[in-house]
Structure formats: C-alpha cells, structure tokens
Fold these 2 entries.
Entry 1:
Amino acid sequence: MTKTENKSKTQTPEEKREEMQTKISQLGSELVKEVDAGDNLHIDIPVRGSANVLFDEKQKKILLGDKMSKRYLFNVAHARRFMQTMLVASYVKKDLLENNLTATLRDLYYAKKRTIKGFKEDTIDEQKESDLAIVDLEVAMDSFRERLHLRAEPKGRMAGDLTVLDRVRNKVDSIDLSRMGSGGWAVPSIVEQIEFKDVGIEYVLVAEKNAIFDRLNEDGYWKKNKCLLMTTAGQAARGARRLLQRISTELKIPCYCLTDSDPYGWYIYSTMKYGSMALAHESNRLGCPDLKFLGMSTSDIEHYDLRNVTIKAKEVDIKRAEEMKAYAWFKSKEWQSEINLFLEKKLKAEIQALSSKSLQYISNSYLPEKIKNQDFLP
Amino acid sequence: MTKTENKSKTQTPEEKREEMQTKISQLGSELVKEVDAGDNLHIDIPVRGSANVLFDEKQKKILLGDKMSKRYLFNVAHARRFMQTMLVASYVKKDLLENNLTATLRDLYYAKKRTIKGFKEDTIDEQKESDLAIVDLEVAMDSFRERLHLRAEPKGRMAGDLTVLDRVRNKVDSIDLSRMGSGGWAVPSIVEQIEFKDVGIEYVLVAEKNAIFDRLNEDGYWKKNKCLLMTTAGQAARGARRLLQRISTELKIPCYCLTDSDPYGWYIYSTMKYGSMALAHESNRLGCPDLKFLGMSTSDIEHYDLRNVTIKAKEVDIKRAEEMKAYAWFKSKEWQSEINLFLEKKLKAEIQALSSKSLQYISNSYLPEKIKNQDFLP
C-alpha cells in the first residue's frame, strides 16, 4: 500500500488537494535546481509495459516492478514528451487543483493543444500524446489521475442500505442509496471525496450487467439480503473500481462478483480484483484483492440444468481461455479446474439464462444458495 | 396522440397494468372466436419499414402510416412468427403483468426459447426472433414495450431542482434530484411510474456527453440557472427519451439539446425530437417535438473562435450530412443553412472544444449567452 493510500482515510479532500499541489511544486523546484546547476533537466518515471509488470502473490495485485527510466529535456527522443508532461503538470496544478475543479482528459487536451502564442504548431497534436503525459505524471507522483482532478468516463449504478456523503466543490449531499427508486445512484467519475455513513450492508454484490441490477432491485434483493447492489454495466469504469476497493477495505465487508460464464466475464472479474497488465500502475488504487467470483461458473451450467440455454464457445473464446489459464493470477487449483471444465464443455452461459427457470429464480434460489454455501471461486 | 397517452397522466400504475392485461385478453378472445368459427387465425399488424413511414409536419414526428398487414397462423411464411407472438403475449400477461414484474428482452427470449416439452426443437432460435415478435405485439396493441413491462438497457443521469416519486413494485421513493452529489440519479429503463413533485426547474438541458454533465454539475450550473441537467451518454436510451418527453409535455417547460457539432450530433438530436425511421412506431411515445437544438452549431465555430480546435470532417461525415440534408425533418431553412455551412467548411467541433478557452467557459459564457439570445436551431 502506498503512502498516499495510508493517509487517504484520514485526509480531508482539502488535504488531499494540497498534498498533490505540494508534490507538483516539488517536482517543479527540483527541475529549477537542475536548470540552475546547468544540468540536463529530467524526470524519473517508472517503466510501464510488460517488461516491468509482475504479479504480487501476497498482495494479489498485478503491479509495476521497480525499473525506472529517466526522461530528459535535452534528448531529441524525449523533448516533446517532456514538454507535454510539463504542460499537463501546469494544467493540473494551476487550472484544476488551485481552483478545486476537475476536467476530463479531453478538456486537458483541448486546453493545451496549442499553447505557443503566434505559432501554428500544436504543442499536442493528438489526445493520445497528452494521455501518455498524464500517465507519466501519475506514476512520477506515485498517485493516480483522480487525485490530479482528472475525470474518466463514469459508469455504474448502486442501491442498498448505505448512506454516502458526496461533495461537489463546497456542496455536501447526503445520499441514501436505499431510496433511489428503480434507477439507482449513478457512480461518479471521482469517488475520493465520498464518505460512508449509516452502513446497513453486510456484503457487496457487483453484477456485470444493468439487467441483473434491475432484476435484483425490483425483487428487493438488496433489502432482504442486507447487501449493496452495484452494476458495472460491462467492463468496470475507474470510478466503480475505486469505490468497490474503498468499500472493501474501509468497511471490511465481503464483495462478490457476478458475471456471465465466459472468458470475458472472468476478465471483467480479474480486472476488478487484480488490476490489469495495461494499467499495472493503477492496481494499487483500483484493485480489490478480496473480491470473490460468485458465478456464473461452468459447473453452474450442469448444477442448475441450464444446458438448453447455453451458447457454444467460439474459437476466440477457447483461445482466450487458454491464454488466461496461463496467467499467474488464474493459477489457483479452483480456477485451473474451472478453465479446464470450460475447455472441455466449450459452453458459455449468460446470467440471464437463469430466467429460463423463472424470472425471480436468481433472487430467490441461485444467489441465496451460492452465498449460503460460500460457493465461490477465489 | 394515442388513447394510451391521453389517459396516461390520470392513470395509476395499477390502471395502466390492468389496461394492458385487458388488451391482451381481448386479442386472445378474438382469436378464440376465430377458432370457434373455423377461421384462419390472424392478427392485424401495422406495416413497418420505409414503405409505411412518413414525416408528420404538424405533429413533428416520424410516424408509421396506416398500411396494415395480416399475420395468419395457417400460412407457412407466418406460422412460426404467429406462434412466437403468442408466446410473447402469454409471457407478458402471465409472467410479467399479473405478477407486476418487469423483464428484459433477453429474459423473455430465454424463458420462451424451448417451450414444447419433450422436443429438442427451440420455439425461439435467436433473440432476434422474439424481439420482432415483441414489436409485433407492441404495434398490434397500439402501445410500447415499457407498458408490456419489458425493459431496455438504461442509460443517462440527471440532476436539478426536481423531486420525482419512483416506485419499485410497492415501495415508493421520493428522490430529490438536487441532492445527488457528483453522480446524479441514474435514469431507469422504465419511467411510466414516475411522478413529478416539487418542480423548481424552468428548462431542461440535455447533453449528449457525460463529460458535459460532470462539468455543468460541478459548476452548479443547474442550480444557478434553475434547470434540470440530463446526459444521455451518447445516443439516448428509451428510458431517457420517454422521460424527456414526459417532462416536456407534462411540465410544459422548454427542453434544449447540446451535442457535438457534427452529423452524429444532429442525428442524436433528431432522434430525441422526431423519432427515427427504424422505430417510427415508437415516435409517439418517445419523441419530444418541442426539443430545440442549442448547439454546438457550425456557426459557433467562427463565433466562439474555435477554429484551432476543430476536427476535419471525413468523407463519411460529408456523405451523412448530404443524406440528412434531404430528410423532411431537416428541411427548415435554419437547418438547411446549418448543413450547407458544414458542407462548405468541412469542420466538426466537440462541445469540449470550448475548454480551450477556459474550463468554465461553457457554464459562464457559452450556455447563458445562447439561451439569453434564444440562439437555437428548430
């Protein structure tokens, strides 16, 4: 766990903001010192990419290793990116943190696209460039973009017996997630400012699909079972992942994940739990190592007699399953036999296949049974 | 306006449900009469597809014409679909309406996929088939799928000084949309049951993008400007479209739409306003004829000096613009000159291009100015 996170529970939003401003100022001061000393300005940046990605068994996280690279101003291959990283740092500090505002990666790109007055040359040609510079700044600061006040696309909804305090600049709202009707509360892009109050939940159930959220919400599942219901609406967005992590670690309650029975479902699960190779630098902030896979599993297909409502696996599914079987984070004997069973049966099943039994079967039988028997994959 | 809608304001959710059950029972009784008379069972179904789609200038809606077709049981080309329509009708009445439950199209498909006991033949092979049968039932009932208790994928968020009453079966929640923090309230799949209370809003601003919702929510735009802020997060989902229509007609307040300046933005707008050709049978229930296009317009690019942050239109954009120029619902002189200007300049602009001026420019200058000057496209 990084320093930033150890502090995060006790820090106020103002303190979090000030800490980041100080860090950026320190980076600036160090560069000024280098200028004064006549050195070639540089920033130390952890190496990203597969050569520096490892799976930490103990922490259960896909993490960056300790390889570092130096980015120099006076190096033809580095100069442009160095300048862009400075543009990003300046925007984050002066435009965002100092004004207590947040922005998207796209806003930043537009704001810093052409910054040299009188020139027709763009300082940032494509958003891809500023996005990379943002990640450079994130890892150089040992932080993550939400702390830099940069928003990602939000996705996901929640309902349950939990009240959260959320603040939008100076306005604080107390939001009772048990009174959200059929819609639910939309999970925000940035969740650092959220506080948990009036906790009446005993576990979290994260469903991959909106349809499952709607089904369980209509059945009053979360009320009867004292759980917080959450949907990621597909691959989980950063806000939803971070919020799940915070609930798991701060409220210390179990979290269960419900996806379709197929390699894509496993991937959604493993990304929420361990992080991903592409975003290994974010696993510390976004991973939820205690998350468990509730289902749907390949053995559920036999157990719940769903054979008639399965989907034949395609070549691409088989290939993906074989790849995943080799990943260090799928090496437990439970996952190895799950993947082997899939490769043997070659069948996928959607959670909604349970509707072939009856609409409320999932709420009244499947979920209570799985949870009572603690029938999870690790 | 159809009978269903005229009644909708005064009908309770229970009455709406009973009305639909009665309609389905009537369809059944008529078929039984045909059986007794030894007739070839049939259902009258309005013809869909471009041959029966028209633009109603006065109502400002893309509608189905009055061409009808008959679907017979004893006709090799019709029999399977006839049977599937009956399966759908039975599921809707017995499983959904009678139990006051809702389901997705996928749930229905799984529930009715294999219904002949002992046979290995599916009654519904692919979901496409049951989806078509559902639309048949919708149009035959002169209704729409939400009244059949069928849910579509929900999308969209809201915030503003408006309290809605939403009910999930027998539980009624009072939801104050001015206390939704940074997330907002997630717009549900079905909004028929929603009632509006404590209306403190003077207009609705619908933004195509989540990023714009977040920007305006953070700036307290909806509070300062007494509006309801809504994002469709891309092409609007059915729930968001229907809710916008209900707010527009029931609260009688102006609704403004904010998209990128490109043919895709115009399409998102025109679908919300007029409906679409593919779903012409739904325009009555989902269209919002009083919606106005606030921006971003091609002339905004010059007016707000955004030339440096535009995107060059591609061949596909030009082609799309030319197609749209020919549509009856883009024939107003304002839209013709907007499209001509686009074809001349060949430039697209995103709303976020305004961030090149300053992050809060949209909240403090662009929107207030456009609204003050009533600078809209029809």
Entry 2:
Amino acid sequence: MYYLGIDLGGTNIAAGIVDEEMKLVYKTSIPTEAKTGVENVIARMADAAKAAMEGFGITIQEIKSIGVGTPGAVEPGTGVVIYAANLGFKHTPLGKLLGEYFPGTPVRVENDANVAAWAEAKCGAAVGTANSVTVTLGTGVGGGMIINGQLYSGFNGMGAELGHMVIHENGRPCGCGRKGCWEAYASVSGLIATTKEHMEVNPESLMWKIAGSLEKVNGLTSFDAMRKGDEEAKKVVDKYLDSVACGVTDLCNMLQPEILCIGGGISKEGDTLLKPVQEYVMKEMFARFNDTHTEIKIAKLGNDAGIIGAALLGA
Amino acid sequence: MYYLGIDLGGTNIAAGIVDEEMKLVYKTSIPTEAKTGVENVIARMADAAKAAMEGFGITIQEIKSIGVGTPGAVEPGTGVVIYAANLGFKHTPLGKLLGEYFPGTPVRVENDANVAAWAEAKCGAAVGTANSVTVTLGTGVGGGMIINGQLYSGFNGMGAELGHMVIHENGRPCGCGRKGCWEAYASVSGLIATTKEHMEVNPESLMWKIAGSLEKVNGLTSFDAMRKGDEEAKKVVDKYLDSVACGVTDLCNMLQPEILCIGGGISKEGDTLLKPVQEYVMKEMFARFNDTHTEIKIAKLGNDAGIIGAALLGA
C-alpha cells in the first residue's frame, strides 16, 4: 500500500506517492490555475493525484489515504479550509470535496507549513521524538509544532504562526499588521531588507558588485559577499543569524521541543547558519544548564517535505 | 473522596483539601524551613498534608491522590524535580520521597506555574476547553499551557517559560541571562523599573508623592497615580499594558489557545488591565479576522490556584 500526498500551492499543485517505508517514490506537478475558481482547483488536485498514480503505475485501491497540505488555516480534524486568499478558499470543505473524486479513500487536510513539520517528524530531521518544531525560513517565516505526537495549530487551526511573535517591539512593519515580528527579520525578505540597509550605508561593500543593484539583492548576496571577505556583509549575516537565533531561543524556552529543525531556502547554508544559531541558543536558552535540552538541526526533506508530510497525514 | 494539594514555596508550604466538586474546602500552611535541607523539607510537606487532613477531619483513606506544585523544572511523569535552587533540589525524586509518608496513595508533582494553569483549566477561568494558557504577572512572568487536555512543559519539563521570550532584542537585562525578555517588562519588577524611569524624568509626577521615594515604588504606584489623573503615570501604565499585550499576542499567534487567562498580583486591576490588553490583541492577533479566536480573561483562583491545581493533578 501507498500514501498519496498533495502539496497545494498558489502556482503549482504537486502530487506524490509515498511508500510504507516513508520514501517518496514518485512525484509530478501541474499548474494550479487558481484564478479558474475553487471547483476547478479541486478538480485539478484530483487530476494531479490521478497523474501521480498513473505515473507510478498504481490504482486508487493501492492508496491507503490521501493527504493535502494547503495554504491558509485548516479547522482541526474537519478538512475545512477556513481562509486562503490566493485560492479563494473561505470555509471550503476541501477534504470532503476532494474526497468525492476518490470515494472510500480517507482524505486529510492540514496547513502546508504544519504538513512540512509533520514530514520532518515522521521521516526527516525530527524522527524519534514526540515533541518537535520545524521552522521554515522562506519568503516568510512559517513552521509547525508536534506536541505529544500530534500536530498542534491551536484550538481553531489559527496558531503555529511562529513568524508572528514580536522580537523588536515597534520594529519593522510586518505583513501581518504588527511591528517587529520575527518574520520581518528572519525571513529571506527580512534578510534582503537588512542587506539593503547596510549597502546604503556602505557604498564600498562587495555586496554592490555581487548584487549589481539594490533591486537585485537576494538572500545569497550577504552570505556570498561574506565568504569573499566583505566586512559589511559579515555584519549583515551576523545580525541576521542573531535574529534567527533569538526567535529559535524563544521557541525553545516556550515549547522545549526535543528537536527543533530549520528548513527553507536559507537552510541550504548548512553549518554557516546552524553553528552560530546553536552557539547563541546554548548561551541564552533557559534549559542550557540542564542535562537535556532542545537539539537544533537543519531540516532534511527540502521542498519534498510538503508532499511527504501531506501523504503521511494518514500514516 | 478528596484530593490533597501541596503548594511548595521557598517560604511556606501550603496544603489544602479539594472536594470532588473541585472546591477548596480547607487549607493550612507552615514555614518551609528550606535551609534545613531536602529531607526535612519533604518531612514538613508530609506534616502540612497531615495537618490539612486533621484540620478538615479526614484520614488518608479519604484522599484519592496527593499533588504537589514545586518551584523548578519537573521531569514529565516521574515526579523528579530536576533543579530548584532555593530548595536544594537537584534530580530529587520528590514524588517518590513524599510518597513514602503515604504508602498506597498516588503522588503527582508538577512545576508550580504549570499547576496554577492546570487549576484555571479545571475549575477557574479556563474551564471548558482543552487548550488554554495561563500567564502569571508576578515578581516574574510565569505560566503554563494546556494542550489537548494535558499540561505541556516541553519534552523534559524545561519549557513553558513564557516570560523568557524576547520582545525587545538587546533590551533590558533579564534574570535568565537574556536581554529584552517579556518578563523584564511585563512583571511587577518590570513595571517598577519603568515607573522609576519615568519618575526620574518627571520630578513633578504624582508618583513621587504616592511612593514617597524611588525605593518605595511598587506595582501599584503608577496605577494609583494614573487614577488620580497623573499624565506621567498614564504613560507608564500604557507602556506596561502594551508590553503585556505584546507577549499575550505572541502567545495567541503561536498557541492560539481557546482561552488565555492572566493571573498574578497585577490581575487584581481587573478591567483596567484586561480591556486595553483585549483591544491590543484584537488589533494585532493573526486570527483577529477569524470567526473564532483566543478569548483573553482574568484568572479566577488567585493565590489558591497553586493548592487547587496541585490537588487536581490527580483528578
């Protein structure tokens, strides 16, 4: 038997087959065509699922369950997406509607960031513990938490907004309406903002040569310039890593998961990211003097975490 | 049948009897005499428990279980106190040692702040939900969280340190070693620090008259002066309430409990504290546009939360 996972994005729908050893054995993707409306998006999710089964050469009879990771908040246990602006979902019973294409096969739905955390917990960097947190440093800062072996996202599915705790009261405006959220500093967008601030102060910085112009700054600009010895870039990276570690320490003090893993684009920096964050946390975490405390790791599953975690919602 | 609760403090040991309707029907207290050593403290806990039973006129046969709220971190499920400096506990099997005085009666041990949260969840302001958070604004900022009907304090019991998330990166030094923790602003000590800062800037403020001197400033100084129309005091209170609400919003965004209640000395301010915090949260919380979201309340059980929650660990 196999599990089928669907990673629903604003641009693409990825679908994949995961075997009982929790390995992703096949994946495919089609455009979401979000603008064509909710019904059509769900029909396309079914198409993507069928394409994955066909591509791998199995039928729905060999699928134990279907799982979906979707943007937006999901009502716990019901498969109802409360709200996802880009997809036009508003109290949409996504699980039920998708299930109509696959009668008899259970369909489970969770928020996409939570699903990625679930994947890391089941077969990624956070295997072997009932209590883990996965933080995703991407365009925003997202994540999910596993508590006592279960995904937890608040009584109504609106929690686990890890990026939206304030680390700088009255700091940078955040997309959520607050000021000084972790996301405004620790996301790629936050890193780019910090990079630009430092470039403007220092026209001699190598970051100008690497990026070409302020508009072309990306999440690698400061890291690359630092590796080539640029002092200003090192300041940017240090500041960025401090902000990442500050929020990570907050999560450790609050949730003290056995494993906290960091994923998202920037996690590809590996030890350049991990070591300074670990050092900071070991200086500041409440449990630092205890025999046991949270272990900080890099997430394992990369972009596949979405499909794998969705598939394993039924595992 | 009854439950027996022990609230172990650095100065006093309070013990009480809770009936099956979850009412505290009797309480008593004796000095802890912490300096006399671990064995003696535990013997005194047993004495306090016996005094409570005698005082209420029941025997150990009528006690279903004994619960203890203790300072320090407690290993989940084992009754072992990992560390509590003031009491000399270090990997102390408190549950087992106390149990030797009451053979056959189950003894459960949890951290005191967690126990208070448990009390509010069982019979206080957070009744009727499986997901709640209680924040205690006292000398420090403590608290506990109930997730899916269970107390959660991290895989090792070192979590739920709600006061030690940073809201001001590089801000005020905190006792925990970090800078800018919520506790440094939202605790009574934080409020006193802010009050003093403003008094020093404004020698005309009524706060000087009310307190007498900087040394005599307490948690009421600014609130009392504000009520008498002092502008500077209002600034202090507004700043304080913003800091309280900032951390509360962080907790809502992360945990989205159904109920979050605020206890501790300052919660006696009632609506003066609650209304502005509720307003702030409803402006900033991620779930503010959702049909359902965290409800912010004042905790109900006051100083008795410790005994009641301890007693109800077995309920």
